[in-house]
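Running this now, will post back.
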Amino acid sequence: MNAIIIGILLPLLGTMLGSAFVFFMKKEIPDRMQKTLLGFASGVMVAASVWSLLIPSIEMAGERVLPAAIGFLAGIAFLLLIDELTPHLHNGALSALPSASS
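Update: finished.
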């Protein structure tokens, strides 16, 4: 029972600590710092997807790698589609929007 509690609390505390750093940041994050943090976050997500999803699915399929490869490529295609379909702003684009008062 203690192992379960520790297994739940450890990621919870790590997430809370990581998100708490937002309160210590200035309004503007330097471009280099933003790129570093985004690169680190994307590396963590790629590692998590490979070690927690892709490798176990290949092990479960035995010698057949095709189902895992199809799922991986379908996931990439889905994310690219969502990126194209959802509206989003880029750095500096906020100033190009019309103001609410005009």
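The first helix runs from residue 2 to 20. More later if anyone needs it.
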